[in-house]
Structures are given as C-alpha cells and as structure tokens.
Amino acid sequence: MSQQHMDDENLVHNSGNHQEENSKTTDLVVVQDCNGNTPVMTNFQGEDGQNNAPSPSSFSEQWSRVIQGVQAPILVGMQALTQTVAYNPKRTLFGVTFLSVLLLVIGLFTNFNVDVDEDILWTPANSLPIQHSDWIDDQSNFPQDTLDFVLFFHSHGQNVLGQGQVQQVFDALDAILSLPGYEAMCADSTYVDTTTNQTTCEIDGLVQFWNLDSQQFATQVSSDEETIQALSSSTFPDGTKVSPNAIFGQAQRDETTDLLTSCQGYTVVIRFPDTDAAESLEDDALDRILDLRQQWNDDSTKRLKLEVTADGSFSDEFERAILKDIPLIPIVFVIMSVFTAIIFFKRDKVQSRSLLGFGAVLAVLLSLLSGFGLLFMIGTPFTSMTQILPFVIFGVGLDDAFIIFGSYARTNPKTKTEDRIGETIDDIGISITLTSITSTLAFGLGCLSTIPAVYWLCLYAFPTVVFIYLYQVTFFIAWIVLDERRIQHNKRDCCVCITAVKEDPKDAEDEPETKVISDEEPTAQEEDRNDNAETKQPLGNMFDGFMARYAEFLLQPVVKVLVVVAFLALAAICAVSASKLSQQFEFTEVMPDDSYVTDFFYAYEDYTVRNSINPYVYFRYVDQSDPAIQEQMESYVNDLVAMDAVKEQPDFFWLRDFKAFLNDNSDQVGPLTFNQQIDLFLSDPVLYDLYGSHIVRDENGTITTSRVEIYFENVSEEDVNDQIDTLKEQRHVTARQPINQGLKEWKFFTYDGIYNIWEFYTKTQEELILTTITGVVAVTGVALIFIPHWTASLFVLPMICILYVDLLGVMQWANVHVNAVTYITVVMAIGLLVDFIMHVLLRYYECSGNRHERTVDLLKTMGSSILVGGISTFLGTLPLAFSTSTIFFTIFIAFVALVTLGLAHGLILLPVVLSIIGPEDDIPRPKSTFSSKTHNKDKMNMESNSDDMDALDEHEKQLRMTERTLQVTDHVESSTKVPTDEE
Questions:
Q1: Of the candidates 5, 185, 332, 444, which lies 20 to 30 Å from 695 by C-alpha distance?
Q2: CA 377 from centroid of its chain's CA atoms
C-alpha cells in the first residue's frame, strides 16, 4: 500500500470520528467559485444550534434548476465525446482530417458549380422581375437576345467631331471585323442586312452613315466639315431614322442649320449572336480592343480614348476579382497561425505551446473544408460572396479554442490530462455551446432571405459554424492531449522529435514546469524535470496578467461613472448617425481596381445623356388588332413617358409607325385584314429592320405579343432611392391600367434587367428589419434557456440592441452604405456581437461572491480569452483590406467596427453594469457530469477483488468523508477526482 493511500485512510478515520461528534450540530453549504475547483464552506449554525441559513429565492432557485436540467444532457454528451477523444487522440486527428478532405474531394467532383450571374444572385426569389424575366425567356418567343459588344469613344469631355476622330472609330471597328472566324460566327445571327440581303451581325452607330465601310468613308469625306455634314443627317443612307442620343454623347446642334456643333462621345454597338462561337470570339475581340486601347493611350497623336464592354465582361471581371483575391485566403491562414503561435508561446522550449496554436488554426481550416465540401455535394452554387466566408470563419472560429485552452490552463497541472479535459468541459462546455448556437442561429436566420446571394452564403456558413464547434471539441482537444504527452516526454515545442536538454535547476527557476500524471511511465530525465517543476501551471497567454490589473482599474467608482457616461454618449451619437444611413450600390465596387468595365461605366455616364436603363414595354394576352386595345397600349406608353424618370417619347414604336403607314397607304391597305396589313407593313426593309424583332406572330400571322423600348434617362445610376422610387412608380402606373386591374399576371408591363437589382434594394430594408428583430429575439431566447438565471435576458436584449445601433452608426461615420455586402455583414453581426456578451454573462453567473468579486473573477478567468478572440476576428478579416474590389474593403471596415464595439461593450460596459446592478444570489453549480476514469478503474478493481459489495460501499463513504474534511479545512487543494453519489 502506498504512503499516499495510508495517509488518506488515516485522514478518513480521524475525520470520521470528528464527523460523528458534530454531525447533528453542523450544517455546511458548499458554494463553488467560477472556476468550479475551490469549495467555500459556510456554516450557518447559530448559537442556539438552529439552522439560520438564508433561504434562496425560490423562483431563482427553481429557474436555475430547470436551466441546469437543460444543460445537463449537453454536458453529458460533450463529456462522452471529449473523453473518447482524450483517450484516442491520434485516431481523432486522423478521422477528422480524413473526413474533411473526403467531403471536399467528393463535393468538388460531384455538384460543384460557380454562379456569378448578377441577375440570379441579387434578385429576390419569386419576385415580379423574376416572373417577367422567366416569361420573356421561356414563353414570349421574342428573338434570342444578342451578345452586345459596345465601343465608346471620347476625349475626356472635349469635342470629338472631325474626320480624324471618325477614322479612329473605323479603325477600331475594322479590328473586330478582321478577326478570324468573325464572318462564320455572324452567319448564325438572326439579323439580315437589307442592303446586301445577307445574314450578318447587326452594327449600330455612326458607321452606318457610310454603310459600315471604312473605304467608303475615306473616299466620300475629305474634311471635318464634310464629316460633320454627314453626321448631322436625320436618316441613314438606307432610310432608317437616326436616334441621336443612341450614337452621340452630349450632342449640340446649331439652331439655324441643325448641324452638329459639338459632341463628347460616339457609341458603336456590335450585336453578336448568342452562340458558343460568339462567346469565344468575344474574348478575342476584347483582347484586340484592349490592346488597341493601350496603343491609343500611349500615342499622344490619337485624340480619342477607347472604352469597351461586352455581354460577358461583368461576369469575367467579377471572376477575375475572385481569382485575384484567392491568394488572400492562404495569407489569412498564415496570419492566424503566426498569431496563435505568439499567443501560445513561452520562453521555455518544452512548456511553449506554439504548435498547439497551429492545431487550433488547422481545426478551423478543416471546418471550412468540411462545410464547403458538404455544400458542394448538395449543389449549392459558389458565388463571389461566398469567398468572404473564409476570412470571417478564420476570425471567429478560434474563439472557442482560446476559451477551451484558457480553462484548461486553469486546471490542476498535476492531474491526469484526461481528467483535466473533463474539468475543462465542465467549466466552459455550456459557454462555447451557447455562443456556437447563437452564431449558427444568426446564419440560419440569414437562410430565410429571399435573395440568393445572401441565403447561399448563409447556407455555406451554417454547417461550417457547426463543424467549427465539433472540431474544436474533438480535433483541438486531441491536439491538447498530444501536446501534453509531448511535454511529459520533454520534447521541444514545434520540434517534437528533439528531446530538450536537462536544464540546471538554477537556470530554470523562472520557468515553471508542469508535472502531469500519465498512463505512460516518464523517463528518468522527465522525472528530474517534473521534480523541479512548480505545481501551479501558468495561465494561458500574455494577456492574463494584464486582465487582472485591468479588472481592478475598471471597477474603481470614478472609472465606472466615466464608462457609463461615455457609452451613453456613444449610443446617442450613433443613434443619430444610424438614422442617416442610406442605401447605395455601384456594381463597379465588386470589380477589380484596374477593371476596364469600370472605366467604360464612368466614361459613358459622364459623356452621354442616355444611360443604360432602357426597359421594354410588353403587351401580351390581348387582341392587338382591336382599336380599343391599341388605344390602351398607346395610353400606357404615354403614362410611362409622363413619369419623372422618362425624358421623351420612345424613338421607335411599331404601333405609331404602323398607323402612320396605314394613313400614308390608305388606298392600298383599306380592304386588307389586320394581319395582311401587318404583312405589308413589315415587307418594307427599313420597317422590318426596326420592328421585326419587336413583334411576335403565330402561324396564322396573329400578333401574340409585342414590345417597345423606352428610356429612363432621368434616373441616377448611383442614387438607390431614386431607383427604388422609379421601380415603384412604373409599377404603380402599370397596376392602374384598366386592362391590368384585378389580374395577378399583368397583360401590360415593363421589364429591364436592372429591375432585378432594384427589386433587391426594395427588399433589403424589409428583410434587414425582419432579420434584425428576429435575430435579437432569438438570441435573447437562447440566453433565457441556457444561462441559469432569469435576469440574463434583461442584460442581453438591451445590450445587443445598443451594440447593433452603435454598429450602424459607426458604419455611417465610415461612409459605408447599405448595399449587398453590408447587408450580409449586418445579418452576420447579430450572431457575432452576441458572443462578446454571452461569455461574460455566463461567467458572471457561475462566479460567487458580491458583484465586485464576481466581476473581477469573470475578467480574470474569461477576459483574456475574449480579448484574444476579438483580436483574432480582426486579424481574420485583415487581408480584405488588400482586396482588389472596393466592396470587400468595405467588409473589412465593417468588421473592424464590429470587433471594436464588441470588445468595448463586452469587456468595458457590461462588466461595469454587472458590478453595479448584477444579481448577487448564488447559483449552485450543477453536479459535475465528468466521471474520472482513474477512479472508475479503481472501483472496478475493488468490485472484482472484494468478498462482497459492502466493502465497495464503505470505500465510497470514506472517499466522500475525505472530500468533506478537505472542504472544511479549506487549506488542502484537491488533487484527485471525487465521485458523485451516482458514481
């Protein structure tokens, strides 16, 4: 029998005699501190021998008991999982790694797909624009849309009229027409050139004045005057009417001669057929034009500047922005690895745990692989917005690791590693579960959004956050166990194959070591090292000492007053600022900084009067031969023109020109039916060229649907409110048409692709309000369920509301507007901000003592973990500051505000509030869900060796008596796990 066991038996014998004498007169209440490992004994016996213990609040006690009943099965499950991991660390590391890689590989090779179509990403599902777009594409039978290749020529606002400038336009056009495969590609077009009667690509612009022929231009024009004379004509040579605003930018005319006097730009549009060959040639055309553009920029003799965009330019540049930002993902991995290595570093070569920090980062990486792989497998599109998720996940994913190790570092270092893991889970299991639930809940609520870009991002985040939680309590726990074994065997940190040289005790005085009980027998060198070690392991990181001093400073009366006043002032200022927050979105913000699309957009906007917003007015499901219907069609167009957004009547409207045609040819068309009149009308090559694609007829020649193009020239492409008002106004005009009243499917309506993003703007505010309210209520409900005191929700609700308002106010100060990406950020903010609150509150209720003591304890035990977690969140999004797109830099600004405010409210304001009005009634911690395997093994051995069960019962009684004696003395620190009654 060991000496320790003999001492325990003597202590049990003596304490047993003492207890028999005093068992009838002593009442002891055990209240544990927030670490759960230092029992405080209180004797409530009065002089008269009566029990004068204060009766706790029955409501609080019952509430706590109910909440602890909810927590118990969670902790039991976590203990079962982590103990299995602790005894099988290598299998756990291999299993988690294999699962993560397997999910990613299966996902990549099955249903992985990328979606960068802005019409799909940002249009709310089942919205009116989606319904109209689907009908146009699938049922209207209008000719397939062409792939427009647009050239814009300007001279930075100077006059571009002149022979040399028009020659440059032809040079650019010829560069495209001479491309190999151009003629073959255009043979698939639906456009027929009426002058040559050949199928070709339609080309609109000033080059039509010379039939697209540069040689004809060279022979017909010899001076600037002749050039201006030709450009001033109201019709092209084939008789087609000229639409000046479509081809000239900011054109001015002489009131007397009607000749052009100035022009700031030329627009040429080449319409490719929508074929695979055209998409390939589009890339070649872009390369050639961009090369020519660069040549002109380098040649000072060239007066014109060339800008270009194509049908696929936005998607291509969007994808290029993604590819340029992909290298930032490994950068964030390196940043977080270096950060955690610094946090876990110690000067002692063995006690340092930098490799453990790397394990925490690796757990987050594997979570990303698993989450993304799972979503790839089920076919969820990967979008440009999804690429911001790794930065967010790396930032928030390490919080649990810091909290786990912070608690682990506070356990008794002499205890067996597996037992320390059990104590750690008992200590912080509910805390990390609680914050994981709130983060998951926030992303889960985001999945309710009708906007695909938002709910797809949240779909990726939802399982990834769950994987982070699972991998931190498995993969990271396993890494801790292996790291402890490394320390036991005196192996160096990071260089685990090298055994550290035994140090002279004099040199090691300043470096406390850890003596850990292990199933494996330590070597002689390890025993020497452990013999020289101190029994107290240092806390987890460099911030622990700071938090102890900070707690005492923060809770000084003067400081508390200043804190309350300062945060009240901040809340008031931010509330005013938040009220000024506005919506604004420019598609150029998601483009790379050097994108040619951005240059085109700004030049076209500055030097033309006509923007790119030109919706079609559609007429369907009506008899368009009926004069009454025709009158309603014209009335609808006139009502739209009366809107503030529209400056003038449409340039070409088939119905008006058809009526004019009938008047001009009344003798010829009089006896004809309507269908025959339409046949005759479209037999004119010029009219067919204008309206052949605007009228759809069935096999009998009856018009089934038609359209006319109008121009929203007075709508700002930067003012979101103006765009929302325009969308609502045209919708109101459409709804009040007599032919549409009472119908779900309108017979008359307008549509343009820009409506999709406008619909997003109209829904953003509604969804943001709904998501905010739902999120706040949800996290408050979670606090009510998981924090064992009914007052928790009274702190969570106002605190998260203040935090949210402060965040919006700070974003407005930083000139950040509400747009697609900030909307996503704000959706995530609730789940991320509440983490700072939940950890502090839960720790406060777990501590004992008065308000001041509890607040000091929570800052000492949880403060450094929260601080380090906040810093890691900031560092996780730091690479976004170097993104090639402005909008991702905006995310960085938003997360800087989020982290700063979260830390400030969680580590400054909330502790001060709790120290002033926090509840003081003690909540007994629930019985430990952890059962030491060491004790269980002893128990099983006794069962097999004893003559009967009475010996086992007596042993359990003696062990419990020993623990009670140790608690009464309050001088002996427990170093073994004592079983509960159930054990």
A1: 185
A2: 20
